[in-house]
UniProtKB/TrEMBL annotation:
<feature type="region of interest" description="Disordered">
    <location>
        <begin position="45"/>
        <end position="83"/>
    </location>
</feature>
<feature type="compositionally biased region" description="Polar residues">
    <location>
        <begin position="73"/>
        <end position="82"/>
    </location>
</feature>
<feature type="compositionally biased region" description="Pro residues">
    <location>
        <begin position="55"/>
        <end position="68"/>
    </location>
</feature>
<dbReference type="GO" id="GO:0003700">
    <property type="term" value="F:DNA-binding transcription factor activity"/>
</dbReference>
<protein>
    <recommendedName>
        <fullName>AP2/ERF domain-containing protein</fullName>
    </recommendedName>
</protein>
<dbReference type="InterPro" id="IPR045277">
    <property type="entry name" value="DRE1A-I"/>
</dbReference>
């Protein structure tokens, strides 16, 4: 709404071509001020803001709470929605989770492997000698 009011005032003060509009694709849809007086521009900007006010919706009532199933139905036997019995898969037993977690904890206690033996940092070159004669100007 305020952006539309700004556009109306900008058009009234600078004209359609020179005004920097928030909505440059719709200057013809905006109302025009009759004169360049500040009161007339304010009135027209307020009218434009009211034209583009979003519709107010009445407050909605919260939805009713969901109905919980009867506890007797839950204990009568686990079946899926298709009528087949539900199957329980023990993933802890499949992946041996207690043993896996123990192995991970033991792995954290190990020292990391040493760097390769025989590597001498002093023997490695630390710079390259590059002369200007090696460079050719681009063609």
């Amino acid at each position: 709404m305020a952006a539309r009011a700004h556009d109306v005032a900008a058009i009234a003060l600078r004209g359609t071509r020179a005004a920097e509009l928030n909505f440059p694709d719709s200057p013809s849809a905006l109302p025009r001020a009759r004169t360049a007086s500040p009161e007339d521009i304010r009135l027209t900007a307020a009218q434009a803001a009211e034209l583009y006010r979003p519709p107010t919706t009445p407050p909605t009532t919260p939805p009713p709470p969901l109905a919980l199933p009867d506890p007797q139905e839950c204990t009568s036997g686990a079946t899926s929605t298709a009528g087949r019995p539900a199957v329980f898969v023990d993933e802890d037993a499949i992946f041996d989770m207690p043993g896996l977690i123990d192995d991970m904890a033991r792995g954290m206690l190990l020292t990391p492997p040493a760097m390769g033996r025989g590597l001498d940092w002093a023997a490695t070159p630390t710079f390259l000698c590059i002369s200007e004669s090696n460079f050719k100007p681009p063609a």
